Every structure is written in C-alpha cells, then in structure tokens.
C-alpha cells in the first residue's frame, strides 16, 4: 500500500489528477460544502495522502527531505485537529497549517515540474496547480489578518468565512478588481499587492515559458 502511495509522484499524469481534485475542492467544496463535516474529513484525508505520497520523492530529490517530512507530520496533525475543533487557537493554527501545506505542496510540484526530462503537458498542468495554490495561500493569509483585525482589515466582508477570502484572493490574483471587497488595513493591502504581482508575473514568465518549451519538445 505504501509503495502505491509513493508511486503517485513517479508518474507525471498524476499532476492532472491533482489539478482536477484541487479545482473541485476550491471551487465546489469550499463555496458549497465547507460547513459539512464529511466534506472536511474527505478533504483532509486527501491532502494528507498527497503529502504522504511525497515522502520518498522528497528524500530522493532535495536535501531538505527529512525536514519537510517532519513538517508534514506536524501539518497533518494540525489539519486533523482543525477538522474537528473550532476553538480560537485551533482556527489560527489551522490557517497556518493550510498555508504551510500549500507552500510545501507547491515546492514539491515545482520540483517535479522542473525535474530532468522532457517538458510535457502534465508539467504545465503542475504549474497551474501551483498558481491555484497561490490563491489558497493568500486566502488563508487574509483570513488570519481578518481574525486578528476584524473591524479594520477589510470592507465588504459579511461572514468572514474562508469562501469569501478565497473569492477575494482570486479576484486579486487575476487582478480583476470588482471592488465589492477591499482591503482597508496596511497588512491586508500589502498582501493584496503582493498577490497581484504574483498573479501577473507567474503566468507571464513561468507558465508561458513551459508552454513554449513543451511546443519545442513536441516539434
């Protein structure tokens, strides 16, 4: 069973699987089913599986493998606690754990994307996974800012739920700027500016480069 889990990162086509499940989680489960316990459990189990699958890959491809494995265990424990408990300190730690999880997962996907071998369509899909993870990282960062400064951090927030911050995060990442939710605190404004820069530079530099390399490899 453990060997099958490790094989997840050995096949590039699994980056497409990761992209599909990430899209379902971010744009269906979070907006419509985040409050249902069973959906939170399924999501937590899935993301734990992804990190467990990365253990062997991290050991073989980075000097920080053991450090990341220890961090992975901590993240899994925090995700499990955040799934069943809603105390204030648990919510804060849960947000931090999700941010750390997304950072670690983005690092692993980028390692896979830029590993030796030809550039394929699956690696381009891996770069899109990282782009989506940027949105999730900033969504949880905004929720943390709102948690500490609820009255002054944002205008237009009605419930303070993660789905609102994810909506604002992708509005900022894509620089759409509808204006229904606006940052009104220096920290939230700085995060929004940083996300907008990433949202412009990352696709223009990295994804576009990968697409051109994949076309060249195909020729």
Helix content: over 70%
Shape: globular
Strand arrangement in the largest pleated sheet: 1-2
Q: Unreliable stretches, pLDDT < 50, 5 or more residues?
A: none
Question: Based on the structure given, which CATH architecture is correct?
Answer: Orthogonal Bundle
Report the span from N to C terminus: 39 Å
Radius of gyration: 18 Å
Largest sheet: 2 strands, antiparallel
The tally of structural domains comes to 1
Number of DSSP helices? 9
- Determine the structural class based on helices, strands and strand pairing: mainly alpha
**Regarding CATH, which class?**
Mainly Alpha
Average of pLDDT: 82
CATH topology: Helix Hairpins
Following the backbone from N to C, one meets helices and strands in this order, namely HHHHHHHEHEH
Overall number of strands: 2
- What is the beta-strand fraction? under 5%
How would you portray this structure in words?
This protein has one domain: Helix Hairpins, CATH 1.10.287.70. Strands 1-2 form a two-stranded antiparallel ribbon. It is built from nine helices and two strands, in the order αααααααβαβα. Helices cover 77% and strands 2% of the residues.
Key phrases:
Helix Hairpins, mainly alpha, globular, 219 residues, 77% helix, two-stranded antiparallel ribbon
Short description:
By secondary structure, the chain is an all-alpha fold.
Please outline the helices and strands.
Elements: H1 2-6, H2 14-33, H3 37-53, H4 55-61, H5 65-84, H6 88-113, H7 121-148, E1 154-155, H8 162-173, E2 182-183, H9 186-218
Antiparallel strand pairs: 1-2
Helix pairs in contact: 2-7, 3-5, 4-5, 5-6, 6-7, 7-8, 7-9
